[in-house]
From TrEMBL:
Keyword Lyase among record annotations: yes
GO cellular component terms listed in the entry, alphabetical order: cytoplasm
Name of the molecule in the record: Gamma-glutamylcyclotransferase 2-1
Keywords: Lyase
Protein species of origin: Sesamum latifolium
Amino acid sequence: MVFWFLATGHLWNPGFEVDEKVIGFIKDYRRVFDLACIDHRGTPERPARTCTLEKYEGAEGDSDQPFLTGVIVFTSTPDKISNKYYLGPALWRTWLAKLQRHGPCVQQ
């Protein structure tokens, strides 16, 4: 069985062996740190910011043909009612402070 997954952010060491690694992009999406993380990089009292994908016309890439098709996709929503972990955009200093938080899985 073949299983592909897209890792955004800092997942250079996913914790398992891989047969093949492909660096790519998702057309018309960009990485943003707008999602609260309370169980990995942060805690409920001090949530960290974590990477998610945001629809953004003209984001990197110029290919008209998809490389992979028939995949399961999860993207975060900026709707604060349906996504209680959405933090929204932040100033660089605020963003950096929350990105560097410590949580159960990360000690920086």
